[in-house]
Structures are given as structure tokens and as C-alpha cells.
Amino acid sequence: MSAQRPSRGARASAPLHALIAAVFRPSGRADRVVPPTGFTARLTVFTAAAMAFLGVFALALSLATGRLAERWGAELARTSTVRISAPAGQMAAQTEAVVRVLQSTPGVRSARVLEDDELSALLEPWFGPELPVADLPVPSLVEVIEQGEGFDAEGLRQRLAAEAPGSVLDDHTRWRRPLIDAADRLRLLGLLSLALIAASTAAMITLAAQAALAANARLISTLRLVGARDTFIARAFVRRFTLRAIGGATIGTLAGGLAVLALPSADAAGGFLTGLGFQGWHWLWPLLIPPLAGLVAFLATRTAALRTLRGFK
Amino acid sequence: MIELENAAYSYGGAELLSDMSLQLGAGSFHFLTGPSGAGKTTFLKLCYAELVPSAGTVRLLGQDVRQMDRDDVARLRRRVGVVHQDCQFLDHLSLRENIALPLEVSGHDMNADSINLDELLGWVGLAERARALPPELSGGERQRAALARAVIMSPDVIIADEPTGNIDWEMSLRLLTLLVELNKMGKTIVIATHDLNLIRATKAEVSARVLRIANRRLQLAGSDL
């Protein structure tokens, strides 16, 4: 049996940046020798465009959930609520005691008892409008705004228990944690989607490159016969697939950006889903998609080409 | 130039060539004969490093083929011109571009180099056909073009595998004349053929050695040729 020859081209090649720079340098020789690769060209452009389009949305999701997690975290972290459930005769006294304790607590900027109409607004989703709050045994609520490093929640709970036994401090931890966790998970899913999109792009381009190489087996055999190095043969394929991937990804990114722009405004609707998009300098992130697609295509095609070429003598 | 020492080649567990020892010196002219399937093409492939021997040693231009990596093989093939029976042209390139292919892949600047492609086309009698595509060429024209491509890098060795297999006698003699000319220029020539008339015609022109492959082994042919 004949032995497999080592490939110096794959083993000790030029630095990556030099190889990538060569992709953008017109390569008349290699381009002239390798004929157009037909359907694989269109497949690469389409795949890169579709994946870039999806990539824009995955990126938008990731950035939007990141913003959401920060906003929820910041808003909920700065406010707390004290709920006072006491017999009607003690309600006013305990509420006053709570406010007094809060005003003397370090880290509390303000403490404000919610008015009846504010309580009505909070209960409206469940009981409808014009709820006679004053006639119902509804607990009194005190909104607490923090300042600086915030307050010592455990110490405050003990003081409130002593001064107003019917009061309960809710520092929103049990609300805040799941919300932030959910937003973080969504952000992670967005990043995972981006990684999967990159991997799928690499797989599709690898298949397309292998198909192009297989269709040119005779050409490769002839080039090897007349003294072509693997890197010369690979260069023509790598250059074509990389430039096509960049072209396709540019189209896909533009289309994805336009689609994100066309989503309803967050200000108009105010919901989470309508907040999906880019804000401010985050619009620069999608610009990274075409070069990243080019890098993925470059690495996938070069790896596939050099591996396939080792099958030729 | 080409040196085999107890070289053997096996494929799929079967030994196709056994115990071959030979030295082909610079400027020598060798014919390789033998029945179809004897292993002539396999032997030639060992001589331009398309195959690696499964036993023994093959040294090409001083290099042991076992020690050569793929880039070394590419460099070697710029010094060993090969003419295949089917010529192996790229059909989307013109005849001129096909002949210049070894220059293209080795990065030569055709304007700066002293290689005169038109002169070469004229030498093989194809100056008028320079722009033709390979499928438009006759068998004889293809073989002469393949020879032009094999010599464009001014190789030390020219290996031809049944170069006259698909062409008539007149065209065979014309091709042979070119190979003899190259040999007189100091090139080592190795031709695999089963055309004894061609061998006799050549021996009238130059001192050619005839090798025969039989029973997987290499022998010197008898004087009846």
C-alpha cells in the first residue's frame, strides 16, 4: 500500500491574516485556471444571505434581552414595597410607624404611602374600574425608593416587625431574580442561535465547497500533474467561496436590518416584543455579520479544500 | 536522475511490481515495454511520485520519494514533464493556456521569463492552433500539445505513457522526432509503449535502452528489437 504524504501547506502555512488578505487580492492565475463553479456559487450566496438575515434577528434578540435584563434589574433594585395589613383601627398608626422607621433608615431616599386612586389602579386589572378601595380591607402600601448602596433589608425587617407588626417588607428580590434570570436565558439563547447559525453556515459552505472540488476532480488531478501546490489550487476555491459568502451575508444583513426597522416602535406599543431591535450604537453590531460570514467561509472552504486535495496524488 | 533499488508496489494486498532495481542517468533514452496490464503505467507513476513504493527505495532527482511531502512532489513535477495517453487538458482553456499551465501554477511571469511560448508552439507545429480548445484538436495535435506542456518548464526528465497509442504512424514519427530532439538536448526520456516499430525507428536515431516488464519484474529486453 502506498503511504500518505504529509502536507506542508496545511502544516506550516502563512499567518491567518496574510491568508485572509490574499483572498481580497485579485488572483488572476488561480482564478483563470479554475472554471466557474455553477450551482455551488448560487447555493453559497443564498445560504450566506439567509443565515445573515437570521443572524440579525438573533443579534437583535440577544441585545434586546440584555437591555431588558439591565432595565428590570435597575428599576426593581431601586424600589421596595412595605405592605401593612392591620385591623382598621390600627391601620393609620401602623402606617405612620412604618413611614417613621423608613425615614430614619440609612439607604432610603423616600417613603411614600400610596393613595387610594393608586391602589385602585393597581387592582383595576383584577376588579375593574371604580373600585371602592376605602370600603374594602385592602392593605396599605408604602413605596420605598433607595439611594446609594441601598438599605439593610434584614435589619429593616426586624425594626418594622417591632414597630408595626402587621407590616411586610418586599424588596422585590423574589420578583426580580426570575425576571432577570429569564432575560439572561433569552440573551444566552440569542447568542447560542448566533453560534448555531455560524456553524450551519460553515457546514453548508463546506458541503458546497466539497461539491465544487468533487466536480473539478479532473482539473485538480491535471494541476497536480503539472506541479501545482495544494495552496495554489485551494486559493481559487477559497477566494470564490469567501467573496460569495461576504456578498450573500451583506444582502442578508441589509434585509434583516430593514426588517428590524420595520418592527413596531417600542415607544408606541411599549411591550417586550416590540422592543426587539437595535438602539443607538448597537446598530453597528450587524455590520460585523458579513466579515464574520466571510471568515467562517474562509476557514470552512480552506479546511475542506486542503483535506480534499490530500486525496489527490 | 531516476533510481530504483529493490522497489516494489502493492495495492490491495496484491504485489503489482516486485524487486525493481534500475538507474536512469542524465541524457539517457529508455523505452518501457510489456504486455497490457504488466504494470508499465504503475512503473511510470513511481517515476514521477504519483505513487510511493510499498517496499524498497525510489529516488527522483536525488530525493527519496518517501521523504517528500506534497510541496516537494509539486516542485519535482516542475522538473519532470509527463505526457499522458489521454493528455489531461483543461477543456475550458485554449491550447496556448493549457501549454502555459505549468508556468501559471509555478508563478512564472511569462513576460519576464525567457520562455517563448510562440516558439514552443511552432516547434510542435501548433502555432496556428494556439486559440483552439482541446476538444477541437486531433489526436496527433493533442499529443504534440501535451509534449509542449511537458517541456515548457525545461524539465530534466520527460516521461511519456503510450504517447502514440491514439495516433497514426506518420504522426507517431513526428512526435518521436521531437522526443529525439529533446534527448539530444540532454533530457532524459522514458517512454512506455508496446509499438515495436516505434522502438526500432528510434534506435536508428539515438542509443535507446529497452526495458521490459514481465511477471511483475523489470528486465532488459533482448537484442531482437
From TrEMBL, chain B:
GO cellular component term, pick one: plasma membrane
One Pfam family linked to the record: ABC_tran
SMART domains according to UniProt: AAA
Keywords: ATP-binding, Cell cycle, Cell division, Nucleotide-binding
Entry keyword annotation includes Signal: no
Protein name: Cell division protein FtsE
GO biological process, one term: cell division
InterPro entries per record: AAA+_ATPase (IPR003593), ABC_transporter-like_ATP-bd (IPR003439), ABC_transporter-like_CS (IPR017871), ABC_transpr_LolD-like (IPR015854), P-loop_NTPase (IPR027417)
One annotated GO molecular function: ATP hydrolysis activity
Stored Gene3D superfamilies: P-loop containing nucleotide triphosphate hydrolases
PANTHER family with a match to the protein in the record: CELL DIVISION ATP-BINDING PROTEIN FTSE, IMPORT ATP-BINDING PROTEIN
